[in-house]
Amino acid sequence: MSENKDPQVAERGNSVEGVKFVYDFTEGNKDLKDLLGGKGANLAEMTNLGLPVPPGFTITTEACKVYLDSGEEPVALRDEVSAHLDSLEQKMGKKLGQADDPLLVSVRSGAKFSMPGMMDTVLNIGLSDKSVQGLAKQAGDDRFAWDSYRRLIQMFGKTVLGVDGELFEDALEAAKAAKKVAVDTELEAADLKKLVTTFKKIVKKEAGRDFPQDPREQMDLAIKAVFDSWNGERAKLYRRQERIPHDLGTAVNVCSMVFGNLGPDSGTGVAFTRDPASGHQGVYGDYLQNAQGEDVVAGIRNTVALAELEQIDKKSYDQLMKIMETLENHYLDLCDIEFTIERGQLWMLQTRVGKRTAGAAFRIATQLVDQGLIDEAEALQRVTGAQLAQLMFPRFDDGAKVAQVGRGIAASPGAAVGKAVFDSYTAVKWSRSGEKVILVRRETNPDDLDGMIAAEGILTSRGGKTSHAAVVARGMGKTCVCGAEELEVDTKRRRMTVPGGHVVEEGDVISIDGSSGKVYLGEVPVVPSPVVEYFEGRMHAGADDADELVEAVHRIMAFADRKRRLRVRANADNAEDALRARRFGAQGIGLCRTEHMFLGDRRELVERLILADTQDEREESLKQLLPLQKKDFVELFEAMDGLPVTVRLLDPPLHEFLPDITELSVRVALAESRQEPHENELRLLQAVHRLHEQNPMLGLRGVRLGLVIPGLFTMQVRAIAEAAAERRNAKGDPRAEIMIPLVGTVQELEIVRDEADKVIAEVEEATGTKLKLAIGTMIELPRAALTAGQIAEAAEFFSFGTNDLTQTVWGFSRDDVEASFFTAYLEKGIFGVSPFETIDKDGVGSLVKAAAKAGRATRPDLKLGVCGEHGGDPESVHFFHEVGLDYVSCSPFRIPVARLEAGRAASQSEGSDHR
Fold first, then answer.
1. Where is 352: in which H helix or E strand?
2. Cβ proximity of 253 and 36 under 8 Å
3. Where do the PEP-utilising enzyme mobile domain residues begin and end (predicted)?
4. Closest alpha carbon to 793 in 782, 805, 777, 804
């Protein structure tokens, strides 16, 4: 079944009237990515700019969607392709696959969003047993012609006919071994001619048919294969990982071939207008002489640095530098460029806004602001909260005494430690068992994607900054070291030999540094990130010891703070966490969970409260707890002086404060068997049995505790009020807010509020201090969201508890289901992402939106916030901005992420308003 479910397409089948399915490169532009895909739109844009782009045409994503929905190509597509092919043949002065001087084309995928290596490409279409002779004659190079033909059969066999690619690779390796050469460029024409015969036999045996000699059949089958590759397993996995919608489809680009494998004056390369790893300006990229484009990204042969092209072919180098400047100034961003040189003639094959590391993203954004190319609002759109979170991860300790065993290219930064594994299957298997792994390969290919996702980092002995491993790792924010040539990787024997002869077996721990390219044996200790030190106040932007990354982060955060409307608070339960949150930029505490204050050395007092048989016993326990609670709040109000502190009254079921039922039963049984005193344990066991619930998260907890245990909530309210009064009398500025949890009906809130108001009045009278303590509630039950208008009559603020709201809306327990079936749901595409990680906008989000609207209809000045962990999730922050909340609250470490995303959300809203 296709993943695209367009009912209109299903109804009309593959006959679509009045729709244009094919565009010449001269007809499109960069703004048509939805229709032409990123590659096609940018080829058209470069054509419009007058850059040297080989002529060609693009089959639209709409054609792909019709094909995927109906199982057949649109009726009109073949005629449109024929018309554009005729036009291309006229431009080129030759026909597709003609015997004497064949036109050859590439058929390449091109989705709206870059999916490097995840879908299919076939080069050299049009070659056959007859036309290969004509190509050799026209080129004056037999070796080139037969090399191109073997490449076509190899790519076509694997991509279109489903032949195992290893069979072709093994045959190529055998041919090199027979000739006693190390690389394929050393094979001669006769060797390649034999290899073509071998490849055709492989196709016949494995695919059950001959390699097609009709060039139009080759092209049509390749187009279908590209369409089909949209729903290939690796493409679907990549889309899930990158949260790319499944219903976009891919365009197909048919482009006249230019050849980089025509000898030493030809070649192919990938260039970046800035370093995608660091963001620094300069000449960055890879070049490979006498090669076709796939050789560079596949990492099969190690490339030379792009700068060396100046000595190899200065004319092409100078022209490329001018084009790179043109493209960066046109796109106003880092550009990733693919090019080919055919006997001294430069051709541009692709450009796109390049993937970059997190550090590069921040540096480049500020560089472009300084160059006057973009403004602050646009700079905010060039970075993400996820990238900022990456920059806050620890890094290796440079002073650690560790054994460095190799060094490669620093392709994607980070400090990764794990057990070496040599294939993707093992990486996934071990990762699911809780092991941290480093995927080690000679080079990666798209089939390694699941292993790359599972691994902490990727290490390859071949390839450069533009290889498959590097590009995909940067896109995922995964640590990667490429091209560590001194490491001998043997995937069949599952081992790696390092200089000096030491062998790293599968399962041995290694460490890789994606910032330096260094590879170490064993586990390297880590130290805090300089970005965390900056947020902690231990490093100051602009100081001599602050690096340019810290300076860039500082500037971007300043942009975000100026732009954002949402305030950002912290979830913090003690003064230490509160102070750290304040250093990270928190503007208050959105959730103080008082249950955490009842643990530790106070557990015995709580046990007495639960076991109390009389009102006097209960009041005695509460009396002893009161000063301890008050001390907690005094410290908290002092740490957050002048900022709001939302204190949630006791929420979890009481059984959480008692010993485990099984452990307690064993203790009682042992005491009885030994005839030892066990009266207290027996009372505890009876209490545990009395409080036992089948589903405690939907039982006696939250506001229900306050209603059935007299004095519990009033003790907490008194502690808050007395602490606030003490702080105010000490010339402080406490801004306490009292939050009632798990309210489902306004009557619950009204009863607790009446009691709280009386206690606050008593404290005001006793201390002579006027207190302004706001009282509100958590909206964490569907009923509360649906009756928010009524609840707002008794609440001065709402705080959405999205963790519990997600559980109650979906009807599953987070603690149980994430380990049991979430993986299957993600793999099947039921979830694009866990609803506990990013808010479910359609379900949970609809309730949040409706409750916010209803609450403010009743009380226009109602303050609205969120205190579930969604408050620190980048995508969720944008949703909370859109629905008009006043603040988000999250764990201290995620405060900078929330600040940044709040600024980005405001900036995007302004941009939408202006448009």
1. strand 345-353
2. no
3. 435-517
4. 777
Q: What is the pLDDT of residue 603?
A: 72
pLDDT, position 915: 45
d(CA 345, CA 27): 24
Longest alpha-carbon distance in the chain: 106
- 468 is annotated as an active-site residue: yes
Phi-psi region of 496 (alpha: psi -120 to 50; beta: other; left: phi over 0): beta
Strands (E), 850-912: 863-866, 887-890
For the chain, what's the residue count? 915
Q: How many CB atoms lie within 10 A of CB 78?
A: 14
Residues 6+ apart with CB under 8 A from 226: 107, 108, 109, 119, 120, 121, 250, 252
Stretch among 367-371, 389-393, 640-644, 685-689 having the lowest mean pLDDT: 685-689
Contact between 144 and 262 (Cβ < 8 Å): yes
Measure the CA–CA gap between 513 and 386, rounded to whole angstroms.
Answer: 20
Task: Report the C-alpha gap between 594 and 645 in whole angstroms.
Answer: 12
Which DSSP category does 868 fall into?
S
CA dihedral sign, ordered 510, 514, 519, 520 = negative
The residue among 618 and 763 whose pLDDT is bigger is 763
The DSSP letter of residue 96 is B
Query: According to the model, what pLDDT value does residue 912 have?
Result: 59
The model carries a pTM of 0.80
Residue (of 124, 130, 135, 191) closest to 159 by Cα position = 124
The tally of CA atoms less than 13 A away on the side-chain side of residue 589 is 32
86-103 burial string, b = 16+ CB within 10 Å, else e? eebbeebebbbbeeeebb
pLDDT at 3: 42
Nearest CA-CA partner of 554 in 570, 566, 541: 541
Does residue 406 contact residue 465 with C-beta atoms inside 8 Å? no
The C-alpha atoms of residue 774 and residue 784 are separated, in whole angstroms, by 19
- Out of 84, 335, 468, 655, the active site residue is 468
Could you tell me how far CA 548 lies from the centroid of its own chain? 25
Long-range contacts of 673-676 (CB under 8 A, 24+ apart): none
Sign of torsion, CA 167 172 175 180? negative
Encode pLDDT of 643-669 as tens digits: 999 999 988 877 677 666 677 777 777
Looking at residue 101, what DSSP letter applies? S
Residue 726's closest CA among 633, 622, 624, 639? 633
Alpha carbons 723 and 732: distance in angstroms, whole number: 11
Catalytic residue among 335, 592, 867, 890: 867
Q: Would you call 22 helix, strand, or coil by DSSP? A: strand
Separation of alpha carbons 222 and 204, rounded Å = 18
Based on the residue annotation, tell me whether 881 is a catalytic residue of this protein: no
More confident residue, 883 or 299: 883
Using an 8 Å Cβ cutoff, are 39 and 251 in contact? yes
Q: Tell me how crowded residue 72 is: count the other CB atoms within 10 A of its CB.
A: 13
Q: Quick one: average pLDDT of 823-850?
A: 87
State the number of CA atoms in the 13 A half-sphere of 132 facing the CB: 22
467-483 pLDDT per residue, tens: 778 877 876 778 899 88
Residue 836's alpha-carbon distances to 91, 526, 809, 870, in angstroms, are: 56, 29, 12, 7
* CA pair distance 40, 158, nearest whole angstrom: 24
Beta strands in 470-577 (DSSP E): 479-482, 488-490, 495-497, 503-505, 509-513, 518-521, 526-527, 567-571
* Cα-based distances in Å from 45 to 39, 249, 353: 10, 21, 13
Could you tell me which residues come within 8 angstroms of residue 538 by beta carbon, excluding any fewer than 6 positions away?
none
The pLDDT mean for the chain works out to 89
Q: Which residues, at least 6 apart from 214, have a Cβ–Cβ distance to it below 8 Å? A: 97, 128
